[in-house]
Amino acid sequence: MRATYATKCSPTVEAFLGESPLSLFIGGQWLSSKGKKTFRTLDPGSGATLAEVHDAQAEDVDAAVQAARQAFVGSQWAQMDARKRGEYLHRLADLVEAHKETLTEIEALDVGKPRPQAQWDIENFSATLRYYTELALHVSYREPIPVPHHEARTVRHPFGVCGFIFPWNFPFLLAGWGISPALAAGNTIVIKPAEDTPLSTLYLTRLVKEAGIPDGVVNVIPGLGETTGAALARHPGLNRMSFTGSPEVGRIVAEACGRNLVPVKLELGGKGAAVIFDDVDIESTVDKLVGAVTLNTGQVCCTASRWLVQESVYDQFVQCSIDRMKKVHIGYWNDPSTEMGPAVSSKQMDRILGYLEKGRKEGAEVLLEGGKTEVPGKKEGFYIKPAMLAGSAENVAAREEIFGPVPFLLKFGSEDEAFDVVNRSPYGLANSVWSKDLERANRMAERLVAGNSWINAHNVFVHGVPYAGVNLSGMGGGVLGPQTFLDYLREQSVVRPL
Ligand code: NAD
Fold this sequence. Notes:
It contains 16 helices and 22 strands. It has helices at 11-18, 58-74, 82-98, 100-111, 115-135, 171-184, 199-210, 225-233, 247-260, 282-294, 311-326, 346-361, 396-399, 415-423, 438-447, 482-487; strands at 24-26, 29-31, 38-42, 49-54, 142-145, 150-158, 161-165, 188-192, 218-220, 240-244, 264-267, 272-276, 304-310, 365-368, 371-372, 384-385, 388-390, 408-412, 430-434, 452-455, 474-475, 489-497. The strands form 6 sheets. It has a 7-stranded mixed sheet with strand order 14-17-18-13-12-19-20, sandwiched between helices. Helix 15 links the parallel strand 19 (430-434) and strand 20 (452-455). Helix 2 packs parallel to helix 8, helix 3 (82-98) runs antiparallel to helix 5 (115-135) and helix 5 (115-135) runs parallel beside helix 6. The structure holds nicotinamide-adenine-dinucleotide. The site of nicotinamide-adenine-dinucleotide has 30 residues, from helix 8 and helix 9.
C-alpha cells in the first residue's frame, strides 16, 4: 500500500495508485518482480510518496526480452499488414485520448509539471503514434533496384526486439517519440521507464491490453538504472536499442550494446544557445525565452540555456529578462496560475543549486539569485526559483548542462563572435536565432553545429521534422522524422542473375 499521499486526486488516479506496488508488464501479464523488490516514486510537488513500484531484476528483464521475442515470432505482429497493425495502434491512440485526463494527472503528479504542460505531453503521444501509423501505410516495403543483368530488389523487414530506456523529464511524450515508429514498423518492444517517473508508462500498459495489442508486443520493466537499465542494455536478445538520457549513461549503454553488436540510438543532453540580434522586439523575445527556459523547470534537453545577446541591446535585454523571470509563478501542478513546478527530485534540485554555487565561485555575475523556495501548503516540495548568471563562456555554468531554469547570459558583437561561442560547446542538440532579418537568421541557423536550429522560437517539435543531436548530444538518427520509421526496418537485398 502507499505510504503517504497528501494531495487529493481523481478517483481513477487514486484507484491506480492504490494498486501499489505497481507491477511489471511482461507477455501481457502484470507481474511482481523476482525477489519482490520495490522502489518508491514521489510527488515532487509535495515530497509525498505516490506509489511503490516493482523493481525489475535481471531475470525479469530476461523474461521481458523473451516475451518480446516470442511475440515477434509467434503473434503475427511482425507479419501483419501495416493497415491491420495500424488498427491496433489507432485504437491505442484513441484510448490514450479517452484517458487523457487521467494520464495528464498522473504525469503532472509524477513529474511535477503544471497541468497544461502535462496535457500537451499526453496529446503529443497520440499524435506521434498516429503520425507513424499513417506513415507506415505509405512506405514501400519492396523496391526494385535497377541494375544491368540482374533482377534485384530491396525488401524491408522489422528488426525484432527493440529496447528503450527513457529519462524522467518527459516520460510519456518521449515514450511516444521512441516506441511509435518501432511498433508501426512491426517490431516488439521492451521499455524501461525512469525510476523517478514510471507511472504514466505503467498506466499505458492497461491501454495496450485494452487495445488488444497481442501479448508480448509491449513489455514494461520499471527499475533502477544500474540494475534494470544495465541488464536491458547488455541483453543479447535485443535487435535494436534506443537510449534517451545523459551522455554519461549513454556511453555506458552504447558500450554494452556494442559488445553484442546491437545497433544503438542515443538522444542525449545539450547546452542550447539562443542568439539574439539587436533588431528583435525585446519584450516578446524575452517572454518566449523565459517560457522556454522555465518549461518543465528547465529540465529540457534542448532548452535555451545560453543566451547570447548583441551588445547594443544587452543591458535592456537583461533588465527585461530579470523583470519577467521574477514574475514566473511557481506552484503545484493543479494550480491554474502555475507557470513552473518543482524540480523532479531533491537530487535534481541539489544539482541545479550546486551549479549556481559552482558558477558563482568561478566568477559568474549573479543577475538573478535563484535558490530554494517554498509553495504554501507544500513545504516538502522540491521548488526552486529561476536564476540568471552572466560572464565568461568558459564558466562551468556556461559550459555544462545544468538542466534547470538557469540561463547564462553572454554578450556578443559580430555574427562570427556569436558563431564561435555557440560552436565551442561539445554538445550539439538545438539552438535558436532571433532576428527580424530573416536572411541573417537563416544564415546563422545553418552555420550553428547542432541537430536542430530554430528561428524566432525555441523548443519547436513538428511531426515529420527530424529532431536529433550530434556530438555529445546523440547519435544514430534521432526521432520525429520519417527516417526514424525506416530506422526500425532492416533492409535486405534479393538478387537473381539474369
Ligand atoms: P540518466 O542518463 O541519468 O537516466 C536516463 C535513463 O537511464 C533512466 O531510465 C535511468 O534509470 C537509466 N540508467 C541510469 N544508469 C544506467 C545504466 N548504468 N545502464 C542503463 N541505464 C541506466 O538521465 P536523466 O537524469 O533521467 O535525464 C536527464 C538527461 O537526459 C539530460 O542529460 C537530458 O538532456 C537528457 N535528455 C535528452 C533528450 C533528447 O531527446 N536528446 C530528451 C530528454 C532528456
